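[INFO] parsing input record for 2223_t:CDS:1
[DEBUG] input buffer:
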Amino acid sequence: MSKSIPLLPNNLHHKDYWTSTGVKSWSIESFDLYWIQQNPRLCKKISRAHTSLGKELDLLFQSSDQQVVEKAQLLKRQLKNGSSTIDNIIWNRSEEIVNSHVCLTYSEFLAKINIKTNIVDNITNSEERKRKHHNDYDVSFDKFIDRSSEEKETGKTAVKESCNDKLVEMALGTRNLKNIKGDEDESSDIESKNQNDNDVPASSNNGLEKVEDGENIDIDLESIVDELQCTPKDVWYVGTVNVTERFRWYQEEVIKKAKSEGLTYKNIYEVLALSSVIVFCWPCPYPVFTNQEWLEITKSNPYTLNELPLLPEISNHLINGTRRHLANKDTFLDGGKPGLSGKIACLFNGLYNSLPAVAPLKISEVEHCYRFLYPITCPFFLGPQKEYKMLLNYSTGDSRKRLGFACVVNDIPILISEIKPLGYTPLQQKKDNLKVQLQARKSINQQLLTKGGPGEAAIFVNMGTLMESYFMDLKYDGLYRSWPFLTTRLVTDRTTIPLMEFAISHLMALEEQVGKIAMNYKYRATNSHICTDELHA
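[DEBUG] output buffer:
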């Protein structure tokens, strides 16, 4: 049966795939199978393949064929929902596919491992993709390779089309995979190139990677080694401890490990160290310091809170409201009472009335932000008199806006956030903590390049109910210091109402510090004489 070739943009990188089958047959799974066979040397790079697919789909949105556009939109939604069972099988067996030296169509692949699928594209409000499949598929891929080699000799075999159960005659391809040069540039194997320059591959916000902690992270070691060969212009001492020198020792050990074993998400502090970021947390993640030395270093935190952000009168009103809640009495706070801020009273009353009795174990990121996070953050960070602009659904450099918020001055974020809803995984937490630290580092570099300072950035991380904030600075050459600020809990149900005073205090104190940094940067004169070589890009 002949198929009509749809109207496609001319600048597609993988046009052979899009024209090899009808629009209705396009799928993430078949694209991944095609991509693996086109790029056998990158057969383990699922995030790289999905990044390429995402770019292709963005181009397909420009097609004049409405069917193409609708299909591309559907695939884009499915891409955000993560890998299907069939897609996981394809990537788990990617090396075997390459080693078989047989070019397979998607239908042939399914037939050879005896998978029978029904694909249901459920375009509802949740936009989730459901996959139904048999659990009794053949797990012996060696037999599949042997059969494929035999069938290649005959040139033809009958296979069962999984989607409609019709027998069709299909000739196996005779193209040898090892002769394919590949249509992806292996030298640009870091997925973050299409996102932030300092971003890490595959943020967990996009749902594309379901990987374990042991996944290797691609790092340009050569440029890092070159940077560390430069002698720092100034060093940081705490007492008798040369922190700069000790941290250099640690960086050198991490480089040795990266060359021999590679780096994974099991220890994000190793990855951050190669970006010259040192994080002051407990327990000490750096074996080059003793616990006593680390204690003295962390005591020098310049962002330590010395005064309570809430006035005692306001704290008393919040405490009394909490007590009335526990006694099952009216909790309404009257903003007109002496000593009580109208803003605080309105925030307390609104949040109290919208809270569930008990928070769900897992919710969507959208619901988490709009139901729990934004109501308690926006009152403090929004306002015409702020020296910065608060942006919701902030984009960190790629074209896709994402949930969270940022405080921006002249398009440079002074505060960066990463958000994960209730039900997040430990791996998602590690990835987002790594990502937000690198974004703060990038913000500091942008400040120094444009105005020569102040070289400070705020970090806010909300993982489920946990709220953490940090401040990063660059006061010493080649040492991005990430200082902990406050750690509290987000109020997500009526059982956590007693924590509201701490949550409000946290955000008030954070906003005050962010406002100072924003003002410092905003009213600086533009410095056009900064030597960019001095910055660690």
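[INFO] The first strand starts at residue 117 and ends at 121.
[INFO] shutting down worker
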